[in-house]
Design goal:
Elements: H1 13-21, H2 29-38, E1 58-60, E2 65-70, H3 81-84, H4 91-114, E3 118-123, H5 134-143, H6 148-151
Parallel strand pairs: 2-3
Antiparallel strand pairs: 1-2
């Protein structure tokens, strides 16, 4: 049976389906890079806890912090090309899906903040050079009562 394309998609329906099934929702490359960066900090965390609204990618219960690692396309990041450019094929579907994701993200952030949980979102595009932004790492350390110098002996006081 020949798969006839009915849209401007360059892939057949079955090939597009195979590609989309391969898209991971947990333990993505940015998540793994973030996990590797925070491991030496000795901060206890849980990944994707089902009891916390939105199942954050990382939850630090002892310091009350939830971290979401968002894919720019899927969560509609409005500060990078991946989040701004939308597929032309089936545009109505994709626009609705991404807007729904953004509404859900805002709702989850409000819920978590009402519970007293600080929420940090790290966008996929921020993993330049294969390292997460230091700002988030520093915020985690500050909330735990430690400074960034304690976590990195190479950044200690040089006097």
């Amino acid at each position: 049976m020949i798969n006839k394309r009915t849209s401007s998609d360059m892939f057949s329906k079955s090939e597009r389906s195979r590609i989309m099934r391969a898209v991971k929702s947990t333990k993505t490359k940015p998540e793994e890079l973030f996990a590797a960066a925070i491991e030496p900090l000795d901060l206890e965390f849980t990944r994707n806890p089902v009891e916390i609204p939105g199942k954050p990618d990382f939850y630090f219960a002892s310091i009350g912090v939830a971290v979401f690692i968002h894919g720019c396309f899927w969560h509609g990041h409005d500060k990078c090309r991946r989040g701004i450019v939308r597929p032309k094929a089936n545009a109505e579907f994709w626009n609705a899906k991404i807007e729904k994701n953004k509404r859900r993200d805002r709702r989850v952030v409000r819920l978590l903040r009402k519970r007293g949980i600080a929420v940090y979102t790290v966008w996929e595009c921020r993993f330049r050079g294969k390292t997460p932004p230091k700002r988030v790492i520093n915020r985690l350390l500050n909330r735990s009562g430690r400074s960034s110098c304690e976590a990195d002996p190479d950044r200690g006081d040089s006097s």
